[in-house]
Structures are given as C-alpha cells and as structure tokens.
Amino acid sequence: MMLKKIYLRAFLLATFLILSMLLAIGFGSVNIENNIVIEEILNFFQGSEVNSSNSMIIFDIRVPRIIFAAIAGAILSLTGMLMQTVSQNYLADPYILGVSSGAGMGAVFCIITGIAQFFAPYGVYVGAFLGATLATIIVVHIAGTSNTPIKLVLIGMGISALFSAFTMLEIYGSKNEAQVRSAMFWLMGSFTGIQWAMVPIALTVLIVLMLFIWLFRHELDLILLGREEAQHLGLSTERMQQMVVIVSSMAIAVIVSIAGIIGFIGLVIPHIARFIGESRHSVMLWFTSLIGAVVMVWADVMARSMFRPEEVPIGILTACLGAPVFMQIINRQYKGT
After folding, report:
1. What single-letter DSSP state applies at residue 238?
2. How far apart are CA 212 and CA 103, in angstroms?
C-alpha cells in the first residue's frame, strides 16, 4: 500500500510538472494567452505555418528557458541531497564545497578583464566552469581520503571564503560600471539568454547524475546509518565520498557556469522531498528531482513576471522564498527542543 502511494504521488508530481511547464510558456514580459500557446504548439507539431512573433517568443526564448529551468532545479536539488547525505548534515547545500564561489571568481574575472568579449558568447561560461573545476580539484586534493565529513565541510567553507574574497576584489578593482553591474547580475543568478544549445548539455548532466544516484542508491542509504556502521557492512566510505564530491561538483559547475548562483533550492527541496516521500535514495531520487523542477519553473515565472518588463535575478527570488520555508521546516523538525 505504501509503495502504491509513493508511485501515485510521483505520478501526480510528474503531471503537475508538465502542466506547470506548459502554463509557464504564457508568462513573461509579454503575456501570451493559453489558447494561443496551445494553437502554436499544435501548429508546430503538425508542421503548419505559425505566427512569426508568437512562435519566436515561444519556441526560441521561453521553451528552452523553461526546460533548462526545470533541469537546473532538478540538478540543484539532487546535488543538495547528495551533499546532505555525504556530509551527514541536513544543513548542507550544493555550494558547500566552494564550487559556486570558484565559478563566480572565474566568471567575474572574464567579465571584468574583458576576456569574455573575445570568446563571445561562451567566454563567461568557460571562465565559470574552469573556476568551478579549480575549486573542485583543490577540495578533493586537500580532503584526500579523509573519512571525516566535518573536515570536508570545513575545507569547502574555507575554499568558498577564499574564492569569494577574490571575486569581491575583482569587482572592487573594476572602474567600469557596466562590467560591475553585469558581474553582480550574474552572481545573483539568471536564466536570461538561455538557448537551445544549452539544454542538451544540462540534460546530459541530469541523466548522468540520476544514473549515479540510482546505481549507488544502496551505498548512499548505508551512509545514512552512520559511517562506522557503513564500514562494518563493507562500504568504503572514503571512496564513496570522493565519488559523490566529484560528480556533484561537476554537475553544479555546469549549472552555475550557465545560470549563475541560485541559492536555497538545493537546501530546501530535499527536506520537502523527505516530508512527502521517504529517506531512501531510490525514492528521494524521483521526489527531489520532480519537486525541484516544479519549484524552479514557477520561480522563473515569478522572476520574469513580477516587475515586467524588468526581470528579477532568480537567485534573489529563491532566497526570499526559500529562507522562510526552510526556517519553518527546521522549526517543525526541532519543535520542543
């Protein structure tokens, strides 16, 4: 009976995600009525001639952006879940290892120095990815084969603080106001300018991440029992920790390099998934990814609709929405203590 309930909830979440993505197409700086959206989609699949202005907005701008937002939400949520598992700390998030700070430093360096213009339109993405990769290498090298989650977290905090300081130093040293504004907007996260070429990259990362979690679901469940218990059952916790750190960091590096830093999604969504489903990773995999995708799609709708035609950086919006929810979750879990 419990398994049937889980399947039903997952099916309802998947259905709601599809409906959310379809409804999200109509919202933005220019609203498009639902009947026009449906008509344009039907015409597209039938190969009929479509209205040029509406079809451009729908298929060239909003559809790739919505698909990428859903994928990004799923990846951030899943990596948050992995970080909470491997660090045995439910306050961990995808950025705890300093990957986002490394990406921020690389991206801001490209923007401030003007290197991004020479490698347009991918200069910022490449710089951010290289910065995130550098942070990952440093964390893995220093942490080594340590079996202590606290050491991993503290190293990540140190790397994050170091790269954040370098980023602020780069911004402080710039005399170009336009570059500073561009750097700050990127650091706050945005799906502006998402193109179809970015969707397959993000989708590939999501598939690899989900396959990793599914293949090692039992090992991840053992870590939840405690590291000593997991080792007694034959699990190499050091090797598992390294694998999780590398896979999670590379996944986050891709998303942050494209969309900037989007906070609180990876911290809050795993808690909601545990409340709706259960703590087994075979179940958490689906609930975490689906809830994260739904939340990110609607957060993106709000970001581009609240003050249209201006757009709110999505990182600010997710922090404003996520912080109260997270405090409420913590208050309920530790009520009376």
Report:
1. H
2. 23
> Is 147 exposed, middle or buried (CB count within 10 Å of its CB: 0-12, 13-18, 19+)?
middle
The Cα–Cα gap between 207 and 257 comes to 18
- ∠195-323-225 over CA atoms, to 5°? 95
Confidence check: pLDDT of 324 > 70? yes
| Alpha helix segments (H runs only) across 99-197 | 99-113, 115-118, 123-143, 149-173, 177-187
Tokens of 312: 């709110």
Q: Would you give the distance in Å from CA 25 to the centre of its chain?
A: 21
Residue 13 three-state SS:
helix
Of the candidates 120, 85, 131, 90, the residue with the CA atom closest to the CA atom of residue 248: 85
- Per the listing, tokens 């581009």 go with 304
Round to whole Å and give the CA distance between 54 and 189: 26
CA-based max dimension of the chain:
65
Please list the helix, strand and coil fractions of the chain in percent, rounded to the nearest 5, in that order: 75, 0, 25
Q: Enumerate residues 6+ apart whose C-beta is below 8 A from 133.
A: 102, 250, 253
Residue 117 DSSP SS3: helix
**What's the CA gap between 3 and 172, in Å, rounded?**
55
Lowest mean pLDDT among 55-69, 130-144, 204-218, 254-268: 130-144
Contact 270, 76 (CB under 8 A): no
CA-CA distance, 59 to 65, in Å (whole number)? Answer: 9
* Residues 6+ positions from 173 with CB-CB distance below 8 Å: 112
Question: Containing H/E element for 331?
Answer: helix 314-333
- Report cis status (omega within 30 of 0) of the bond before 200: no
**What would the pLDDT profile of 111-134 be if each residue is shown by its tens digit?**
888 776 666 667 788 888 888 888
What does pTM read for this prediction?
Answer: 0.91
Structure tokens that stand for 71 in this block: 């994928």
Are the CB atoms for 282 and 214 separated by under 8 Å?
yes
Residue 71 C-alpha from the chain's centroid:
8
Cα(204)–Cα(198) distance, rounded to whole angstroms?
10
